[in-house]
Each structure stands twice: as C-alpha cells, then as structure tokens.
Amino acid sequence: MLTNLVVNAIHAMPDGGTVEISTRHAEQVPPPYVEGGTSSWMAIEVRDTGVGMDDATRERIFEPFFTTKQVGEGTGLGLSVTWGIVREHHGWIDVQSTLGHGSTFTVYLPIDTLVAPALAGVA
Ligand SMILES: Nc1ncnc2c1ncn2[C@@H]1O[C@H](COP(=O)(O)OP(=O)(O)O)[C@@H](O)[C@H]1O
Ligand SMILES: [Mg+2]
Q1: Distance 102 CA to ligand 1 centre (A)
Q2: Confidence grade of residue 112 (pLDDT, cut at 50, 70, 90)
Q3: Is the pLDDT confidence value at 44 over 70?
Q4: Could you tell which of 79, 85, 96 is best to mutate to test the pocket of ligand 1, judged by most ligand atoms within 8 Å of the CB?
Q5: Whether the Cβ atoms of residue 44 and residue 106 lie closer than 8 Å to each other
Q6: 2-122 has which CATH code?
Q7: Which atom of ligand 1 is nearest to the CA of 52?
Q8: In the predicted model, is pLDDT for residue 119 greater than 70?
Q9: How far apart are the first and last CA of the chain?
C-alpha cells in the first residue's frame, strides 16, 4: 500500500521534490460507504510536491487500469489494488491534489479493529 503511494509520488516529481510520510490520530465521521458515526482512525499521509492532478483525473484514479503514464511505465493497477486493501481493512483513502503543486493521499484505518486483536494478545 505504502509502496504504491510512494512510487506514485516519485513518478509525480520528475524534476525532484519532497515526499513526506506522516501519521496522526483522527477522530471523525467516515464517508457514507464506510458506515458508522464518529470514531477513531489512524491517518497515514503520503504528501508530494509533484505535478498534482486535475479533477477529471482525480475522479478516476482508483479505477482498475486507469493510468496517465506511458505504456510500459504504469499499469493503472496500483491505486485500485491499494483501495481494495484499505477497504478490506474497513478504511478509506482521501485524496487532495492541486494541479502543479502536489498531492496528499491519506489512508484512514480504524483504530478499534487494529488495537483490539493486539490487546487480546496481551491479555
Ligand atoms: N501522487 C500522484 N500525483 C499525481 N498523480 C497521481 C499520483 N498518484 C496517482 N496519480 C494518478 O493516478 C493514476 C493511477 O495511479 P496507479 O493506479 O498507481 O497507476 P499507475 O501508477 O500505474 O499509473 C496515475 O497514472 C496518475 O495519473
Ligand atoms: Mg502507481
């Protein structure tokens, strides 16, 4: 998941730039398709200072085989696979992007289901 996001970030910065990975705790309502009210999430952000995306591109990036890269450079599968992995863990991915300035992909994973098995192991 992180490899896909970081490789994309690097591809988005052909002239160099910065990729930043950070984590934070988020207390918020998930999008409707995730279901549930306000709850605890681990937010993992991958931020780049790359080319960014226009709205039309951003709307399609999680589609299988959607790519803006040359044949041989991209399969268009990275983000659809990443999306699938995150959804299987009952999370979601938020994308903020400004054309010409960069993008931030934020993966939200539920803290309750992450922590509960770990605590069960300790008890
Ligand atoms: N960090 C990013 N900055 C700009 N565009 C991105 C970024 N990550 C993904 N994209 C866009 O999303 C498309 C799909 O990404 P992905 O599913 O990983 O396939 P691929 O990398 O093989 O093209 C990319 O072709 C690109 O247009
Ligand atoms: Mg990719």
Answers
A1: 12
A2: confident
A3: yes
A4: 79
A5: yes
A6: 3.30.565.10
A7: 4
A8: no
A9: 30
